[in-house]
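S1.2 Input.
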Amino acid sequence: MALTPYAETRMSHADIGLIGLAVMGENLALNIENKGYTVAVFNRADRGGLKVEDFLAGRAKGKNVVPCQSLEELCKSLKQPRKILLMVKAGKAIDELSELLMPYLSQGDIIIDGGNSFFPDTARRVAYAESKGFLFVGTGVSGGEEGALKGPSLMPGGSTAAWEHIKPIFQAIAAKVEDGTPCCLWIGEGGAGHFVKMVHNGIEYSDMQLICEAYHILRSAVGMSVDEIQATFASWNQGDLNSYLIGITSEILKRKDPETGQPMVDVILDTAGQKGTGKWTSATALDLGVPTPTIAEAVFTRCMSAIKDERVEASKKLRGPKAKFTGNRAQFVEAVRDALFASKVCSYAQGFALMRQAAEQYGWTLDYGSIALVWRNGCIIRAQFLDRIKDAFDRRKKLANLLLDATFKKIVVKSQRNWRKVVSMASKLGVPIPAFSSALAYFDAYRSERLPANLLQAQRDYFGAHTYERVDKPRGTFFHTDWLA
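S1.3 Output.
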């Protein structure tokens, strides 16, 4: 295929190629160009090259962006080792594009998957690319459309040899913390980068659900107006709960529907969507035997929201408590704040415990404190208290659980009375707060020296001869009882 005259003038001069010009791809391309790099772009779904032409005539006009009408043209426009960022839908499209690219690549060239791919798929792609003499990187990209343009949180992993080549670009375009440190570091080999992004998204699910439950109990149980709750969230965002999600919640609650004049939140149907990363987090936690109940409850609650018609019918037939909230409203609002903070700590504790077990399982060396710093800006779960997580792992590199750190122990112990008050009150009033409740149950289970699993093991041994260990014998020695003798 003949090269376009525009591409020929820039032959082999582009620093990086980007495939996929949806909003995320366009914004990343503009971000990269804004940092002084030349970007070659291609859009695989083009008809007559109109998408590329529209981009060059619009948002990319006058910028160092090289338009390409084929994969061959894209590859010929790049400096070696070639670096090609795929911003396309996760799944088979990544495999198909990689195969189509390889005939035009040279040994050591780098394919980068910037989508939300499942980490085992990334590990497989890394191994396959390396078997062909190429390098493959799977990078988490968090921050949405705004982050892609202004500075995302980046979590690359895969072929380690690729890092020295992509590091300057990645750290240039990433969000920065106050001292200028980029929210981007090399996570590890194989699927490590996409694994950490998956856990980020799982925590994001629980963070969002916890905020929604705080809103729900203030609205449905306490009877606060949307404007009162908005002011409450705005106040919370000035303290320990300061975060991107608390901030945007306050902004959302301000908005009025132009058609009805009602709060915008009241005209949005209560059915939540999901793209699968929260489910992946929960399924992986089950596979690795790591308890992440708050993250799982956040996923299940989205599933519950989706059966709207059933819930409408059930609401006509199933009755719950008729009690109403009584007591000091201001004190209870403060109790909800404490419950939200403590539950949030448990959610992050679960996510970091999952990463710790995955590192052991897959042979990764993960720097948990630095991962917390990568999430400190640019990403959806960015929050003030991530600095405390960084400090916790600086104090103890092998910290088993955030709840064992003095700072986080103090937070949950201080919040415990109010936390229990909120969960108890919600149960009494019939307001579902599954994420708050599961976080509290996680805390209580984790601090329990003895759980009823002894009875469970007896049951398993009774019906299936699964054996059990004894409290008075060394661990690893198993016994069986003939329960019918």
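S1.4 Remarks. The CA atoms of residues 403 and 447 lie 9 Å apart.
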